[in-house]
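TL;DR need structure tokens for one chain.
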Amino acid sequence: MFIHDLFSLDGKVAVVIGGGGVLAGEIQLGLAKAGADIAILDIHDAEPRAAEIRQAGRRALPLIVDATRKADLEAALAKVVEQFGGVDILLNAAGINSGTPFFEISEEEWTRILDVDLRSVFLACQVFGRHMVERGKGGSIINISSASSGPPLSKVFTYSVAKAGVNQVTQFLAREWAPYKVRVNALLPGFFPAEQNRKLLTPERTEQILRHTPMGRFGESSELVAAAIYLASDRASSFVTGSILRVDGGYGAMTI
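>> reply
TL;DR here they are.
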């Protein structure tokens, strides 16, 4: 009972932006198994992910949303409140990446990556963060950072800039919203092969990454779940805000 009470999300509602993806999909399923109902916001139809949530015994609401459009997010909030009553947890996990060399990055690519990876976090925190603050019941916001947020990772210039910005948004809002019991933290994964980065993992780059990772392997998506549940729980992490929690196999501790 002690562990259940500490980490239970019973009665909570989580909004997961980018929930159609591999890593976010695994995390939201974990949140559901811990007791939360899930609203899945994605640019694509996330009904298959919603079916996983329902199979886990929780309610799911899949919504097609462009997270770079504030009006879409506001409409989604209204639907979530109508169906679930309110929002307790927000996971910002929308993301795209590119390995374009610096001199070849177009303004369009630069803008698109910043929009999806950083602007979506800014807008979602405005929309759902305001809801949490005004509702007066507190809440937990979890932003997905990256090992490339600093020091920056080679070959992913714009993505690294965006994720450094995510860290700043996280810590700024943690400071501003602490009096309202809205906690804001970031989950910083190391290298977890997924659709958006698999094309960048050439044999040479894979060797470099694993040589720099003390545990000598890539992460499994399931290994992010416990950290997310910890940050989502207002009991287990009640005094944790402004933190950037690494789940990276030691990558961030490595120098030479």
